[in-house]
From TrEMBL:
Its cofactor is Zn(2+). This is C->U-editing enzyme APOBEC-1. Its EC number is 3.5.4.36. It is found in: Cytoplasm; Nucleus. It is an enzyme of class 3 (hydrolase). GO terms for molecular function: cytidine deaminase activity; mRNA 3'-UTR AU-rich region binding; zinc ion binding. Keywords: Cytoplasm, Hydrolase, Metal-binding, mRNA processing, Nucleus, Zinc. One of its GO terms (biological process) is mRNA processing. Residues 10-134 form the CMP/dCMP-type deaminase domain. Belongs to the cytidine and deoxycytidylate deaminase family. It catalyses: a cytidine in mRNA + H2O + H(+) = a uridine in mRNA + NH4(+); cytidine(6666) in apoB mRNA + H2O + H(+) = uridine(6666) in apoB mRNA + NH4(+). Gene3D superfamilies: Cytidine Deaminase, domain 2. The lineage of its organism: Eukaryota, Metazoa, Chordata, Craniata, Vertebrata.
Length: 236
């Protein structure tokens, strides 16, 4: 496999693309699918070309597979300058966060931006610390918004002819909940989003529990943006 499988335009094989149903099950923030899907873009140096490809977890996590592939396919040790963008269905676990930090510290001219659809076992303290360490090492971690979903749909999905603008939409509430929880992680606050995973056909429950520390620490505009919290209204 070479990087050339992911050329940005004129790809007649659509090899890099995933099927619309795969995009929906992997990236819908309400679905808690076990496997991870990674869609990635690499822009080398001053080139305007963007290389795109996709990866999954195998016996190793998708992030580890990317790092291994990237490292093994680079023959020289000359410093490379490139910008990498990941669209990950799950945020990195603490072990991957550690490997990513080592990767970016070995390649100081590489910038990495990670968009995630969901937070992976976000109640786990090690995973929370892993994300904090990752962010403080200079890696950008953000929750995927509508614009990222549409971008991935156009560039990574084998949509039917004429369906370019038909990116599946999930209610923005879920993106907001995960964004709020990521805020809590960054600020070292206790989790405010509780997810009870349903078994088989049972429903998965998403519950927002805000404590005083959340109200005191999270900027009010972030809380209000969720639409779940009402500003005070005076009534005489
Ligand atoms: Zn991992």
């Amino acid at each position: 496999i070479s990087w050339s499988t992911g050329i940005s335009t004129g790809d007649p094989t659509l090899r890099r693309r995933i099927e619309p149903w795969e995009f929906e099950v992997f990236f819908d923030p309400r679905e808690l699918r076990k496997e991870t899907c990674l869609l990635y873009e690499i822009k080398w140096g001053t080139s305007h070309k963007i290389w795109r490809s996709t990866a999954r977890n195998t016996t190793s996590h998708a992030e580890m597979n990317f790092i291994e592939k990237f490292t093994s396919e680079r023959c020289s040790d000359a410093p490379i300058s490139c910008s990498i963008t990941w669209f990950l269905s799950w945020s990195p676990c603490w072990e991957c966060s550690k490997a990513i930090r080592e990767f970016v510290s070995r390649h100081p001219s590489v910038t990495l931006v990670i968009y995630v659809a969901r937070l992976y076992w976000h109640m786990d303290q090690q995973n929370r610390q892993g994300l904090r360490d990752l962010i403080s090492s200079g890696v950008t971690v953000q929750i995927m918004r509508v614009s990222e979903y549409c971008h991935c749909w156009r560039n990574f999905v084998n949509y039917l002819p004429g369906k370019e603008a038909h990116c599946p939409r999930c209610p923005p509430l879920w993106m907001t909940l995960y964004a709020l929880e990521l805020h809590c992680i960054i600020l070292s606050l206790p989790p405010c989003l509780k997810i009870s995973r349903g078994h088989q056909n049972q429903l998965t429950l998403f519950r927002l529990t805000l404590q005083n520390c959340h109200y005191q620490t999270i900027p009010p505009h972030v809380l209000l943006a969720t639409g779940l919290i009402q500003p005070y209204v005076t009534w005489r």
